[in-house]
Amino acid sequence: MAFFGLFNKGKKEVLDKGLEKTNRSVFEKITRAVAGKSTVDDEVLDSLEEVLLTSDVGVDTTVKIIRRIEERVRRDKYISVSELDNILREETAALLLENGNDDETSPFELPATGVPYVILVVGVNGVGKTTTIGKLAYQYVQAGKTVYLGAADTFRAAAVEQIAIWAERTGARLIKQQQGSDPASVAFDTVTSAKANGADVVIIDTAGRLHNKTGLMNELRKIKDVMAKVIPSAPDEVLLVVDATTGQNAFEQARQFSAVTQVTALAVTKLDGTAKGGVVIGISDSMKVPVKYIGLGERAEDLQPFNRREFVDSLFAKRG
């Protein structure tokens, strides 16, 4: 397991480091916005709105957060600018909770159903979908779970090769067929084998094409149908992977995939490479779907379960 690194930094330290670019950008802008001000007024709120928008929180979500802060200002009558970052964190965390982001549960604690927990992973090519699957497999194996991986992205030979490498590194069992095979057949074989062998988790990779929505919709529907023949509850989760560095394009990808399948959870990757970490908040709010994982680096451990309070603290809290 040397591939994954010998030293595992504290989770919060990794989160702080991964969101450093966004945090620095946000605070530089907020500092300019409140310069010479003693209280939070309309001018400060207008400037804060611009800060959130340029962090890719999204228009609708930004408006919601600003309205919440305006309500606090009206209720409390007087709010100093020194209190603004605390209020921003509180209201953002509350909004994330409303969208299903509950910090009380661990994604690696599975329900005791007697059958494998099935995760169907979707997302366009290049967002880190297959790498996210590999990192998930590693963390489930580290949690003592038996993991099966289904290489159902049969459109790209590279996808099968990549997931095969992750299977070897993590100790997960890989089910694959030849390139160009029916993805649903791969999914069926994976779930069937996993159930027969008493596996805990099944993670199914899928093609990342969006140029033909009808074809993608039919493909995903077929995959779901054949898995349900083996395990009626499958898939237990449809995980959409999006790339934070794409900013507003991530919103569009989320909208397109939600139009072809019922997404139940989000994984937002490459947050360490962008100053627009607010995309996590905006996508969750716009889709009304919880963020389950965030990617903060190359190591397997750098794919973290999402914790809304820790996230907004790392995103907005003053450092140094």
What does this structure look like?
The protein has 320 residues and is α/β, with parallel strands linked by helices. β7 and β8 form a beta hairpin. α3 runs antiparallel to α4, α6 packs parallel to α7 and α10 packs parallel to α11. The N terminus is likely disordered.
**Strand count:** 8
Radius of gyration: 21 Å
What structural category arises from helix and sheet content? Answer: alpha/beta
Assign a percent range to the helix content.
Answer: 40-55%
The largest pleated sheet is described as: 8 strands, mixed
What is shown here, in short?
The protein is of the alpha/beta class and about 325 residues long. The chain is built from twelve helices and eight strands. The chain has an eight-stranded mixed β-sheet with strand order 3-2-4-1-5-6-7-8, sandwiched between helices.
Question: What is the secondary structure topology, with strand pairs?
Answer:
Elements: H1 11-18, H2 20-34, H3 42-54, H4 59-76, H5 84-98, E1 117-122, H6 129-142, E2 147-151, H7 157-170, E3 173-175, H8 183-196, E4 201-205, H9 213-230, E5 237-243, H10 248-260, E6 265-269, H11 279-287, E7 291-295, E8 303-305, H12 308-316
Parallel strand pairs: 1-4, 1-5, 2-3, 2-4, 5-6, 6-7
Antiparallel strand pairs: 7-8
Characteristic terms for this protein:
single chain, alpha/beta, eight-stranded mixed β-sheet, 12 helices, 12% strand, disordered N terminus
